[in-house]
Amino acid sequence: MISFNIRCSKEHVFEAWFNNSSAYEAQAKAGEIACPICGDTKVEKAPMAPRVNMGKSRAVANKTPSPAMVREFITEMHRHVKENCEDVGDQFAEEARRIHYGESEERGIHGKASDEEVQELVEENIDVLRLPDLPRSDA
Ligand SMILES: [Zn+2]
User: Please, how many CA atoms are within 13 Å of residue 91, restricted to the half-sphere of its CB?
Assistant: First the structure.
């Protein structure tokens, strides 16, 4: 006997037992395997991890992120910063300090700063976040 995780077309995953893998193929083709949740007979073999009773976000959170996921996350961060923060370029450290001390309008900014500048800002308790560089897509 062999067990497979089977997934129906509505993404329900269930475990089913077969004499062997060709028995599965034959039964699946004949529409003899029905989803116990919705009765769907359009089924296919699912990846080994069962996903029943597990929210999608939790399934992702439990997973070690793949390089592609990390790249997507960093790309999203960059996009968010570009859309929501003003680009102050090389003036970043100076402008962050002005905002912190109320000399400049409070807003999100992004720009370039040297390691020393960032260190100084941190020491002055100014909130700065170093954005990871965008990974090369072929990395
Ligand atoms: Zn189903």
Answer: 8
Ligand 1 centroid from CA 59, angstroms? 19
66-95: per-residue pLDDT in tens? 888 888 888 888 888 888 889 999 999 999
| Confidence (pTM) | 0.47
The residues whose Cβ lies within 5 A of ligand 1, an ion, are 8, 10, 12, 35, 37-38, 40
Which residue has tokens 């800002």? Answer: 121
